[in-house]
Design brief:
The complex is a heterotetramer, with two copies of chain A and two copies of chain B.
Chain A lengths: L10 H12 L4 E4 L4 E4 L9 E8 L16 E7 L5 H11 L5 E6 L2 H16 L4 E6 L19 H14 L4 H14 E7 L19 E4 L10 E4 L3 H15 L7 E8 L5 H17 L3 E8 L9 E8 L2 H8 L2 E2 L4 E2 L2
Parallel strand pairs in A: 3-4, 3-5, 5-6, 10-11
Antiparallel strand pairs in A: 1-2, 2-4, 7-8, 7-12, 8-9, 10-12, 13-14
Helix pairs in contact in A: 2-3, 4-5, 6-7
Chain B lengths: L2 E2 H17 L1 H11 L4 H14 L8 H15 L4 H15 L5 E2 L1 H19 L9 H13 L5 H18 L23 H19 L1
Antiparallel strand pairs in B: 1-2
Helix pairs in contact in B: 1-3, 1-4, 1-9, 2-3, 2-9, 3-4, 4-5, 5-6, 6-7, 7-8, 7-9, 8-9
Classes of the chains: A alpha/beta, B mainly alpha.
The complex binds adenosine-5'-diphosphate (2 copies) and magnesium ion (4 copies).
One adenosine-5'-diphosphate (ADP) sits at the interface of chains B and A.
C-alpha cells in the first residue's frame, strides 16, 4: 500500500488539518472529538443541519460544510461511523433555539451512533431529529434486513435541506423537505477495483481483470452481483434501468441526474457515462433539468461510478439552485 | 467464588488482550462480508477501556458502566453502540452490588443480550453477534449451579458454537446483509468477537 | 483494463457529449474537430483565451471554459496534442478584434501544433500569441533539452490570465500577466501508480509495491527518479524543498499553494499533504494566502499528487480572487 | 526508373500498411521513455492518408502535399507536425515535376530532413527521428547513381542503423528527455518509425 499518510491511526485528523488550512474562510475544525463546523457564527432561528459518517468518502461530508448546506460534519474513522460523543459535540456547537436535523446514511453503525447522540441531546432539551437516507436500489428493502444503504443521494439531500435551513425554514419544514428528497431519490453503483483502507493495507476485495461489482456500496463491501465487464452503453443501461424501475420514475418526470465518480475513475469516463445516462433517460421521456458530475461521494481510491436520480418539483429545483458556498459545491455567491 | 470489582477489571484486561491478539483475524472476517474494520474498531475500544482501568471504581457495576461509556465513544461502527449498550445494561442489572454471584453474572449477561436486541433488532439466525450471545446466555443459565467460572466457561463454549452456526446463514442485519445470498459461507465477525470476549471472561474467572 | 468506455477511438468525443449535456449553461461543444467553447457570445474588445492539449487531464482544460477563464479548450486524443486544424477552429470561433492568447504546456507536440495554428491564424490577419508554461522543476531546464514540462501551474495561469481577459485587458497586458505567472510558478509531482491509456489497455509503467516515481509528468512518462515509499511528512518535505529552492521562494513571500491529485489519490490524502505543505512553507517564512486543493490536473487514474506554488503580488491575488464560473472552478458568481 | 504520382501513391500505401503492422511495436517503444502513443499517432495519420489516396493528383509533389496536410491534422503529438513538415518540404522541393528521378528523390529526402530540423531543433545524437533520417539522406546521396530503388534501399539500411544508434543515447529532445539519464538504453520510437517509412518506400520502389 502506497499512500500519502504518516500513520493509519491519525490519517483522518491529519487530513482535517489540511482541510482547515485550505478553507479557513468557510469552516473551522475542532479536534478530539473531530468535528467540522461552519466558520460563520451560529444564528438564532436557523435550524442546524448536521451530517457525518465514516471517513474515506470525501468530499462527503466535510466538503459540504458552509453557507446553504451543512452546519457541521462529523467524520468518523475510515469507513467507520463516528461515535455519539462526536455527534453530540457537533450538535452542541451548532444548535440554538431552532433545533437540529441529523442526516444519517442508513448503515447500522451510523443509525445507532447518531440516534444515541440525538437521544442524549434531546435529553438536554434540544429539538434534534434524524432522517435516514436509504437511496441504494442495489439492496433489497425489507424489514428483515438492515435496509437500503445511503449513498449518492446524500449529497443532494444535504444541499436541498441545507438551502431550506439557510432560508429560515422551521425544523418541521426542513425535516419534511428532507423526507421528500429521500422519497424521490434513487441510486446505483458499480466498481472496477476495491478501495484500500489505510489500517488494512490491502484492497477490500479482489476482482478479476474483467469482473465488475454491480450494486456496490461505498465502504469496500462487495456488490450485490458480480458481472462481466461490458461497454459503457450496456453498463449504463443496466444502471439506469435499475434506478428508473425502482421508484419508478415515469415519462414526463423532471429529474436531477448525478453521475458520481467513486474516487479512482477519471473524470473523462464519468462525463462519458453521464452523457449516456442522460440520453437513456431522455429515451424514456424523463427530462434531466439539473446535472451534477464528479467525485462527490467516494470510496477512497475505488474505481467505479454511481448514478443518482432525484425527481424534482419546483420546490426542490429552487432549493437546489439556491446559493451554496462550501469547499466542494459552490454557486450563486 | 463471587466477583468483586477487581475481578471485573481483570476480566476486562484479559478481554483487551484477547481482542488485541485477534485484531487482524476479526478484521479479516469483516472484509469479505463487511467493511474490514471490526478488529480495528474493537481493538480501539478495548485499548481505551484498558487505559481507564488504572483507577478501579468500587463496584462491578461501576466498572462495567465505565467500560460501556468508553466503548460507546471509542468503538464506532455498529459494534460500538451494540457492545456499549450491552455493557451498560449489564452494569444497570448489577448496580449497587459489591460482589457478583453466579445468579448476578447470569443476570448481567442476559441484560447485555437484551440490550443488543433492543438496539439492533436482530433475531437469532440473522447472522450477528446475537447468534453467539443468545445461546451463551442460555448455557450460562443452565450452568449457574456450578459457579461463576464454570458458567462463563459454558457460555464461552456455547458462544463458540453459536458463532460457528453463522457460517451457513444468509445475513439479515448489519453490512453483511447487503450481500444477500453471497453473505452465506462466512463467520460473522461480531459473533466471533462475542465468543472471544466470553472466553476471555471465563479465562479470567478461572484464574481468580 | 476496465473502464467506462465504449471504444478507445471515440472516448474523447463520447466524453465531450456528457460534458456538453452537464454544462449547457456554461459551454457548448463542436465536434470534428472537437472544441469546447464558452456558451455566451463572443465579445468585441475582449481577448480570447484558448488552451488545450492531450485529453486525460480532466478537468484541465475543458472544465475551465467559462466566465473569467478560458474562451475555448481544444482537447486532443488521450495524452496526445491536438492538431493545428482543431486549434484553428477554436481561434476562429472565439477571436474577434482583440486577438487571442494561446496557453500552451511545454511539450514538443503541443508547442509545435499550437504554434503552427497560431502562424496560420496570423496569416489570416488575427493577432494570435502563444505563451508556453513550463513549471515542472523535475526537469532540468536547458537549451539542450525539450525544457521543462507544463503541469499544475497551468490551472493558475488559465485562471489569472482569464480574469485579465475578462476585465478587458488588452492582448499585450494579458500576455504580460501570463508571462508573470509563468515566471513565478513552480511545481513537482510524484506518482504511486501509472495511468492506463484506453487504447493501450495496460499501465504505462510498472512500479514495485514500495516504489514511488519522484518528479512525474502527467502523461504516464516515468519520473526523474525512483524512490522508496516514505511517510507523508518526508515525501512532502522533499517536494516542498524541490519547489522552494528552484525559484527560489523566499522568507516573506506571499504564495498560492495548490495541492493537486493526479486522479487516483483520494481527497483525504490530498488534504493531508496540503496541511503538511502549508506548515513546511510557514516554517520557511513563506506565507500561504491562497489555497487550491483537489484533482485539477490529472493523469487519468494515476495515483499521486503534485504541489504547485505561485508567488503572489496584489495584482495576481486580485485576478485570482475575481469571479469565475466554469464547470471545475467557480466563485464570486 | 523514375517515380510518377502513382508510384508515390504506391509508396504511401505500403507505408500505411507497414505502420499499421508496427503500431503496437511503436507504441511499446514509446511507453518506457514517452507516453505510449507513437504507434497510435502514426497509425491514425497514415490510415487517414490512405483514405485520401483514391483520387490521385497528377504530380508526385501534389500527392506528397496532400499527405503532409493529412499528417499535420491527424497525427497529433510531436510526430504530427514533424512528419507533416517533412512531407510538406519534400513536396515543395519537387513541386511542378511530373516524375521524380534519383536526384529529385534525394532532394525531397533532404528537404524533409531540413524541415524536421527547422521545426524540432534536434541535432544528431539527441535521440530522435533525426538520428535515422540524417544518415539516411547521406546514404541516399551516396547511392543516387544506382537509381531510385537502390538509393531508397541504402537510405532504409542507414536509417535502421541510425535508429539502432539511439539505444545508448541520453535523449535531449521530445518527451524522452524528461527522463535524463534514464532515457538511455531505449530505441527512439520516432527513429524507428522513420526507418520503417523509408523501408516501405524502398519496398514499393523495388516493386515498381
Ligand atoms: N443490527 C444488529 N444487531 C446485532 N448485531 C449487529 C447488527 N448489525 C451489525 N451487528 C454486528 O456488528 C458486527 C460488525 O461490527 P463492525 O464491523 O465493528 O461495524 P460496522 O459494520 O459498522 O463496520 C457484525 O459482524 C454483527 O455481528
Ligand atoms: N524536437 C524533436 N525533433 C525531432 N524529433 C522529435 C522531437 N521531439 C520528438 N521527436 C520525435 O517524436 C517521437 C515521439 O512522437 P510521438 O510519440 O508521436 O509524440 P509525443 O511525444 O508528442 O507523444 C520521438 O520518438 C522523437 O523521435
Ligand atoms: Mg465500519
Ligand atoms: Mg465493519
Ligand atoms: Mg503523445
Ligand atoms: Mg508519444
Amino acid at each position: 500500500m502506497k499512500k500519502v499518510i504518516n500513520d493509519p491511526a491519525t490519517v483522518v485528523t491529519d487530513s482535517l488539518r489540511g482541510l482547515a488550512a485550505a478553507h479557513s474562510d468557510l469552516l473551522r475544525v475542532e479536534y478530539d472529538p473531530d468535528v467540522v463546523l461552519r466558520a460563520d457564527t451560529v444564528v438564532r432561528g436557523r435550524v442546524a443541519l448536521i451530517s457525518g459518517g465514516g471517513s474515506g468518502h470525501e468530499p462527503l461530508h466535510s466538503g459540504f460544510v458552509g453557507h446553504g448546506m451543512l452546519d457541521a460534519a462529523v467524520p468518523g474513522a475510515m469507513f467507520t461511523s463516528p461515535t455519539p460523543d462526536a455527534v453530540q459535540a457537533a450538535i452542541k456547537a451548532t444548535t440554538v433555539d431552532a433545533g437540529a436535523l441529523l442526516i444519517v446514511k442508513n448503515y447500522t453503525g451510523d443509525v445507532l451512533n447518531f440516534e444515541t447522540a440525538a437521544e442524549l441531546a434531546s435529553a438536554d432539551g434540544l429539538d434534534v431529529r434524524t432522517v435516514v437516507i436509504d437511496d441504494d436500489v442495489a439492496v433489497a428493502d425489507s424489514t428483515f434486513t438492515a435496509g437500503r444503504r445511503g449513498v449518492g443521494g446524500t449529497v443532494l439531500l444535504e444541499k436541498i435541506a441545507g438551502a431550506a435551513a439557510e432560508r429560515g425554514d422551521r425544523l418541521d419544514d426542513v425535516e419534511a423537505v428532507a423526507r421528500k428528497v429521500i422519497g424521490q431519490v434513487r441510486s446505483i453503483g458499480v466498481a472496477f477495483t476495491a478501495p484500500t483502507v489505510p489500517h488494512i493495507g490491502e484492497p477490500s476485495f479482489e476482482l478479476g481483470p474483467d469482473e465488475v461489482e454491480f450494486g456496490i456500496g461505498i465502504h469496500g463491501e462487495p456488490g450485490r452481483e458480480r458481472i462481466k465487464a461490458e461497454p459503457a452503453d450496456a453498463l449504463v443501461e443496466r444502471m439506469v434501468s435499475a434506478v428508473v424501475e425502482d421508484l419508478p420514475f415515469s415519462r414526463g418526470d423532471d429529474v436531477l441526474l448525478f453521475t458520481n465518480s467513486m474516487g479512482g475513475t477519471p473524470l473523462v469516463e464519468v462525463y462519458l457515462a453521464h452523457g449516456i445516462a442522460e440520453r437513456l433517460l431522455a429515451d424514456r421521456g424523463i427530462n434531466v433539468t439539473r446535472h451534477l458530475v464528479g467525485p462527490y461521494v467516494t470510496s477512497l481510491e475505488m474505481q467505479g461510478i454511481s448514478l443518482t436520480v432525484l425527481r424534482l418539483d419546483s420546490e426542490l429545483a429552487d432549493l437546489w439552485d439556491s446559493p451554496v458556498n462550501t469547499p466542494a459545491l459552490r454557486w450563486g455567491m | 467464588m463471587a466477583c468483586a470489582a477487581g475481578d471485573v477489571v481483570a476480566a476486562l484486561r484479559e478481554a483487551a488482550e484477547v481482542i488485541a491478539e485477534h485484531r487482524v483475524e476479526l478484521t479479516d472476517l469483516d472484509r469479505p462480508i463487511g467493511d474490514g474494520d471490526h478488529g480495528e474498531n474493537m481493538n480501539r475500544g478495548f485499548a481505551a477501556v484498558l487505559s481507564t482501568l488504572e483507577e478501579v471504581p468500587d463496584t462491578p457495576g461501576a466498572v462495567l458502566k465505565n467500560a460501556a461509556t468508553t466503548l460507546i465513544s471509542k468503538v464506532g461502527g455498529a459494534a460500538g453502540p451494540l457492545y456499549g449498550t450491552a455493557f451498560l445494561r449489564a452494569a444497570t442489572a448489577v448496580s449497587g452490588k459489591s460482589e457478583l454471584d453466579a445468579e448476578a453474572v447470569v443476570a448481567a449477561l442476559r441484560a447485555g443480550l437484551e440490550g443488543v436486541v433492543a438496539r439492533g433488532k436482530a433475531e437469532p439466525g440473522d447472522a450477528t453477534m446475537v447468534d453467539a450471545l443468545s445461546p451463551a446466555v442460555e448455557a450460562a443459565e443452565a450452568a449457574k449451579g456450578d459457579g461463576v467460572a464454570a458458567l462463563l466457561g459454558a457460555a464461552a463454549d456455547a458462544a463458540d458454537k453459536g458463532a460457528e452456526s453463522t457460517v451457513p446463514l444468509v445475513a439479515r442485519k448489519g453490512r453483511a446483509s447487503y450481500l444477500g445470498e453471497r453473505s452465506a459461507g462466512h463467520l460473522d465477525p461480531g459473533a466471533r468477537s462475542t465468543a472471544l470476549l466470553l472466553r476471555a471472561f471465563a479465562t479470567a474467572a478461572g484464574r481468580a
